[in-house]
Amino acid sequence: MAVNKRDRVGASPPSEDGLNLWDFADPNEAANAALDVYGPDTITAAAHCALSAHFDGRERDYRFWFAVFSKLNGVRPQG
C-alpha cells in the first residue's frame, strides 16, 4: 500500500491491520466537510474524533483529527 505523502509527521508506513485516515483523506477537505455537517459544533466534533482515536490507540488517526482540529482553530462557523 502506498504511503500518503501528506502525512508529514513522519509516521511509519501503514500497517497491514487496515487503512487509517492518512491513507486516503486530506485534513483541509475534512475540515471543510466537518463545517458543512456540524456547523457550530464542528470544533467539538473534531476534538471528539481526535480523542476517540487517541484512546482507541489509533495514533495516526489521532494525528489526522488533531490536524483537522488545528485547521478549525479560531473558525467561527455561521449557524
- Uncertain residue ranges: none
Number of helices: 3
Q: In angstroms, what separates the terminal alpha carbons?
A: 40 Å
Fraction of residues in H or I helices: 40-55%
How many strands in all? 0
Main sheet makeup: none
Quick one: overall form? globular
Radius of gyration: 13 Å
Mean pLDDT: 78
Helix-strand topology string: HHH
- Binned strand content: under 5%
How would you classify the helix and strand content by structural class? mainly alpha
Helices and strands, with pairings:
Blueprint: H1 27-38, H2 42-55, H3 59-72
Helix pairs in contact: 1-3, 2-3
Keywords, separated by commas or semicolons:
mainly alpha; 79 residues; single chain; 3 helices
